[in-house]
Amino acid sequence: MISAVPPLRSLWVHNFDPSIPVGGVFMHTLADAMRECGVRVDLFYTGRLSNPLEIWRARTLLRELSSEFDVVHAQYGSMCSLVASAAPGRKLVSLRGSDWYEIPEGPFAERMHGTLANTFTRQALPHYDRVVVMSHAMRAEIEGRSRSLARGVIDVVPDGLDLRLFRPMDRQDCRRALGHPDDQRPWVLMTTVFEDNPIKRVPLAKAAVELARQSMPELVLKVASNVAHETMPLWVNACDAVVLTSVHEGWPNAIKEALACNVPFVSTNVSDLAAISAQEPACKTVAAEPRALADALLATLRHPGRANLRDHVQSMDVRAVAQRLREIYDEMVLTPCAD
Questions:
Q1: CB environment 174-210: b (16+ within 10 A), e (fewer)
Q2: 6, 39 contact by CB (below 8 A)
Q3: Transmembrane ranges (predicted)?
Q4: How far apart are alpha carbons 147 and 316 in whole angstroms?
């Protein structure tokens, strides 16, 4: 009798605060898809890691737990990846953007936090067998500026989204479901967990919309802050365009969701978005200036028809992303451990 092959086991180390309902929602969605691919995923929340004792406890516990798993997968850089790097065995880290890029503007405390996050990430990278990044732009920067930090392969695997949940829907039906049945005005959506996040630059989006209103007075900016994930498809489809004014991004989930719903975007030049806007006249990637963003919004809102933008994110469906990660795991367990 042939015994069943035990499932591959992966320990996902993360620092997404469980008290924030939408925090790390993409991670939980992907974890469920990974389980459907035959991977047993266990989650390990590091805690806040705000003092040396918390860091020591997390590192010690991870050293003890890691022997039970085939792969330890840090879900974020910064101190999360530095803590997880203490685990023996095969290790993978996913860099999502804010853990790699520094913050060039905003309050001093926020800029210092970004610098520290970047420093911790760089210190952790040499301890990982594989590195996953969200965009080709991120990989090019790591390879160009500090390739020696990553000892293994750098894979581009954007976070997945559920294309069964995010799909094109009738705009007025969605507005009706959100309590705005008679609103015919053009809506522009901006999504952020926290409105005061200096990376997202909500004031820049508001300034751009104010300028655009000089030519389109009825224009409305909707800021979706800390909205329940299951409600987001309604918000995206209720809008005529999505605006992103970030300083930097890995691969922005707000834009993935918009493309999945065939809603065009206007964005600053982050991630790999310029490659999409070069192909899609309704989408714009412009300078981080109110006038440039306002003109782009007006051009997008006046663009005739609704393009099939969904094709750009077909490969980012969470089930396809889970399968790719499963392939990376399989490659890792067949490779001698570097530790």
A1: bbebeebeeeeebbbbbbbeeeebbbbbbebbbbbbe
A2: no
A3: none
A4: 26
Other Cβ atoms closer than 10 A to 108: 7
Q: How far is CA 152 from CA 44, 103, 129, 131, in A?
A: 24, 27, 5, 7
Which domains, ranges and CATH numbers included, belong to the chain?
8-160+317-333 (3.40.50.2000), 171-314 (3.40.50.2000)
C-alpha closest to that of 288 among 264, 274, 270: 270
Tell me how many helices (H) and strands (E) the chain has: 12, 11
Give the position of tokens 């949940």: 165
Spell out the residues 6+ positions from residue 214 whose beta carbon is closer than 8 angstroms to its own. Answer: none
Q: Locate the DSSP E strands across 135-198.
A: 153-156, 187-192
Q: How far apart are CA 191 and CA 136, in angstroms?
A: 23
Instruction: Find where tokens 């405390």 sit.
Output: 109
Q: Which amino acid is at 114?
A: G
